[in-house]
Amino acid sequence: QERLSQVGMLLTGCADPSNHEYHVAALQMLEQAKKDVPDFGCYLMLVFKMPDAALNLRQLAGIHLKNTILDLIKAGTLPAVLVSYVQGNILSVLGDPVRECRRIAAGILSSVLSGSAPANWPPLLKSLLQLLDAGNDQSSHAVLQAFQLMCEDHIDVLVGRHPGMDEVLNGMITRFIALFAHSDAEIRRIAINCSRQFILPRPNAFLVNLPTFLQGLLALSKDQSAGVRKEICQALCSLVEVKADFLADPSICQFVIEFLLWTTEHDSDYEVKKEACEFWSSICENQDVPSEILRPYLTRLTLVLLNGMVYSGEELAALEADLDRPQELHPSQTHVASR
């Protein structure tokens, strides 16, 4: 209890810059304590999870905890007691009513996993999946954020042939795909993002779920969320780079091509249109894609791409200089964009 009070006082000093000398001293003492006290991170975890502590102190404790874990991992001195304590307590904060605390908790979880042996991952991942199934939208969002960080930062561990990982990985991908139909657009977006991280490494757990993954993506082709549509385009772009045989199904091929043609030309969000354009580059650069895939659409695709070309004033000037008769460059044929 005395140590906990001391940690609280240090955090209070760190959070209050009004007394400059005390603030600087508190920061220095906090940094020194991280190095000298092996279980100091446990006290930070305790403050972070306390619902009755001041919110700014909780958030500060969480941020310092994450940084402490990363520093200890880098130094190769992350104590097992800290890993165990954090893993045993962090899940409760994923359901915290404060959004920022949930976000910090997701980052802490991803950080502490990076310092844990892969053999210890499956039990924690299973607990996360249970929380995802049983939680409300708030906790589901936080759990998905944690999964997103893991899929982005530790995909090599997740797809590695570690004991117990295949079963967990199949459960993760299955849950992600099921969430494509969730009513919350942000949950749909993160679920697609998590799923598409497995396209490039192509573990068996993803390949067996590929038909369901595709069906889920295409069912969202008219989604109202620009973030969801952007994720769909990125997923299809990655698929055509490494698993283009999904286009062998004529019905899927037609749906995908028509969706991306429409998106390239008509989507209301510029970032989504840019992602759709990437698909055409990827499919043309992949020599494993038969030429007849695009042949029926070439005329339309060419017109769509030409119509979407945007020139700056400087580019227009350069084009006019290259023309023998500048008047041939009619404004109705060209879009001018300021930079």
Q: How would you explain this protein's 3D organization?
A:
This protein is mainly α and 339 residues long. The chain has helices spanning 2-15, 20-36, 40-49, 55-75, 80-93, 99-114, 121-134, 137-153, 155-158, 165-178, 185-196, 204-207, 210-219, 226-242, 250-266, 270-285, 298-307, 313-322; strands spanning 310-312, 335-337. 70% of the residues lie in helices and 2% in strands. Helix 1 packs across helix 2.
What's the helical proportion of residues?
55-70%
Radius of gyration equals 25 Å
Strand % is: under 5%
State the helix count: 18
Which stretches are low in confidence, meaning pLDDT under 50 for 5 or more residues running?
334-339
The total strand number stands at: 2
N to C succession of SSEs: HHHHHHHHHHHHHHHHHEHE
- Neighbour order of strands in the largest sheet: 1-2
Describe the global form.
Answer: elongated
Describe the biggest sheet? 2 strands, parallel
Q: Which structural category fits the helices and strands?
A: mainly alpha
Average pLDDT score = 89
Distance between the termini: 60 Å
